[in-house]
From TrEMBL, chains A, B, C, D, E, F:
Keyword presence, Manganese: no
Domain of life: Bacteria
PANTHER family registered for this protein in UniProt: CYCLIC PYRANOPTERIN MONOPHOSPHATE SYNTHASE, MOLYBDOPTERIN COFACTOR SYNTHESIS PROTEIN A
Family to which the UniProt record says this protein belongs: Belongs to the MoaC family.
Entry protein name: Cyclic pyranopterin monophosphate synthase
Gene: moaC
Pfam families per record: MoaC (PF01967)
Binding site for substrate: L75, C76, H77, M113, E114
Function: Catalyzes the conversion of (8S)-3',8-cyclo-7,8-dihydroguanosine 5'-triphosphate to cyclic pyranopterin monophosphate (cPMP).
Sample GO molecular function, one term: cyclic pyranopterin monophosphate synthase activity
InterPro entries, per database record: MoaC, MoaC_bact/euk, MoaC_sf, MoCo_biosynth_MoaA/MoaC, Mopterin_CF_biosynth-C_dom
Catalytic reactions of this protein: (8S)-3',8-cyclo-7,8-dihydroguanosine 5'-triphosphate = cyclic pyranopterin phosphate + diphosphate
EC numbers on record: 4.6.1.17
Pathway: Cofactor biosynthesis; molybdopterin biosynthesis
Length: 158, 158, 158, 158, 158, 158
């Protein structure tokens, strides 16, 4: 028998039964950091609604992707997210953009996968928008920063 | 005027016109590597159709995600992919699973984003399947390994 | 700082947090009116399950589109609609079909966009079904007729 | 027997067989104009990547909706669009924003519905972003401006 | 090594590479037959655009489902179907409705799954529309009737 | 006036208003049985994560399809399923695989269509995986086995 909750006693994948869980306030924040050539970073920083707003496009892509999580991750529950936000921090020292995505829900299951999906797709959209000038961009870290709510309580990345 | 092809002269985002490009054989391979606790890696390695096949689920999630790329990445063209495959390499030294995704197309535009999306969603699915035992898993690198076909020719990651 | 609720203090688009709003009965009705040549209107009026039921197809398209609203309108919340209906009124004087769409929800956010999306897609479907005989059909007015429920209360178009 | 191509001899709806049609260059442009209070128009005009870029969000929504047309309009063919662009013209005299959407394809069927869907969803997104300050905004005209390619040739709205 | 084409040498599922296959005219027809109480059949037969057109709704559901096949069947290729039609035959002797769905494509892979998906979803929609009066309805046979085109040639059910 | 709840007094299809129904625990189980050549059954039985796990792929396809039911069945409500599981029983005597799908929800409407959709798509996926060796496979029975919860109470197939 697997210790992994997404499998039943016979090893078959299933969508975990959350019907018995409490409806609580749940929140999760995930990060994805994309490293690039300094000139690419400058192109993005110079952009705005007039010159081409890479981060505006990536933010929307992340928000919309959060809503598609149950379509993408096979065993995720469909959720009625109450809030999604995606923010960017430019790290000039590392020539990197850090994407932070936060999702919230009043519900029976956590929203970690929604936050991770939003951050990942936002970072991939930055890649798509800039790949013609910098194919070597790399997402150097994608991870859960924190989550709260539910029986397993609060988690914060060390 | 932006140097980024996804914006027009006025800085407005648009889906690039690929109508004038040649139909050629296009291929791309992307990688995403997810690092985890050694016990988590062992759980995944022990899994199979009887005990819970994490990698089998992640592979399918990656393949299906490749087909949704144009739905996720705002300025990507809808494509009739001719082939998608997703493979895993276990790196015990680093306690890491490396996802490799390859996409092919006979068409007018490249399939880098499809390969990157497949690799990313496969890695996120591994996270989802194992997060109950290891919330600290981190995708430490997501990048394009190589692409070929089209006017910009062949690219290989250094 | 923007007065528009879909942007945060820094001007970044986000999905508004509705977690703190009350669950109330919400309802909205929207209209879209499509004008056409009198012969086109007659073709549609003569249609039925035997001769081709344009309005039956358009009604279903509208109902199904209401369920996709959160997929289409970037900052809309995913909602579990409790009811969707789409009706048609033939206005022979104006040679026009008026689409009315009504959506209901017990939830934390309004359903105006769902009603507007249903009415718009139903009208576009009428266009699609008849465009081979009348490419000049025009949707002359799409608007919210009324909405109720929630903190902002009842609105009725003047 | 119906004169409408979307029905067969018995009046049953079907997706028209386009297998025998030539692959030609097809293009269509549609417009949707949304009228609003002058203060609402000013809010949108003042917006940018720093204060909230309503039109940037609406443009992306329109582009992404064009790719979903076959999902929304029941009898539309799935198409591999080669190009989608969405532009806005501010008409201060009429206190109105005019959305223009253009789609292109090398294929066997026209792209009128894709252009109309893009324009409609972009206009509805403007409504969504501003509805908290102006619920009376109205899309006063949605129509095909021109289309070219295919057996039925070129059409231009009078 | 599996004899099943959807697995590679190592037993991993993949989307078969069809890039090397010829573009030929492909067609497939599938059937699904749903048996019901005679009174239920009579309700459906009496229905029309005025009294409730069960088969009109089921036909559209089938056509739209054909377009979603690659979203539903994990290893199916995304296809630009050129034609989809769904028809119904009432079999009063057996108290049964037979759904026939036909799909066509000029492409590199067959459309059997598209035809089977269209027939299945049309039959399930009949179930949905009538389940309040007859929960015991049963789809007694779903199968491929014939397919043509491609290297494997023509198949006809015996 | 129709006796079918999916039509209103005028015979127009609509999504039934479930806003007044109680939130209760709802559950449904459906079955789909696919008959095949004995050699095909053997190929599937021999399969595993190393040789090709047909049933593992079909299970995931069924689970993911349950989440898409409201997208496929036109008048179904979008639901936040709390649990989905799909199991297989090999019937060697009949050379058949029986798919059982169970869905659960705390909500205002039943989940019969979700269970039927999951079972149907899992069976079609088995067909897809094996069709290269056995095009004559037939789904010989798809039906609701039982459902509970809601005003109409419990139903069990005879």
């Amino acid at each position: 028998m697997s210790k992994l909750t997404h499998f039943d006693k016979k090893g078959a994948a299933h969508m975990v039964d959350v019907g018995g869980k409490d409806v609580t306030e749940r929140e999760a924040t995930a990060a994805a950091s994309i490293k690039m050539a300094p000139e690419t970073l400058k192109l993005i920083q110079d952009g705005d609604a007039k010159k081409g707003d890479v981060l505006g496009v990536a933010r929307l892509a992340g928000i919309m992707a959060a809503k598609k999580t149950a379509d993408l991750i096979p065993l995720c529950h469909p959720l009625a997210l109450s809030n999604v936000s995606v923010d960017f921090t430019v790290n000039e020292v590392e020539s990197m953009i850090e994407v932070h995505a936060t999702c919230k829900l009043k519900g029976r299951t956590g929203v970690e996968m929604e936050a991770l999906t939003a951050a990942s797709i936002a970072a991939l959209t930055i890649y798509d928008m800039c790949k013609a000038v910098d194919r070597g961009m790399t997402i150097v870290e994608t991870k859960l920063l924190k989550k709260s709510g539910g029986k397993s309580g609060t988690y914060e990345a060390s």
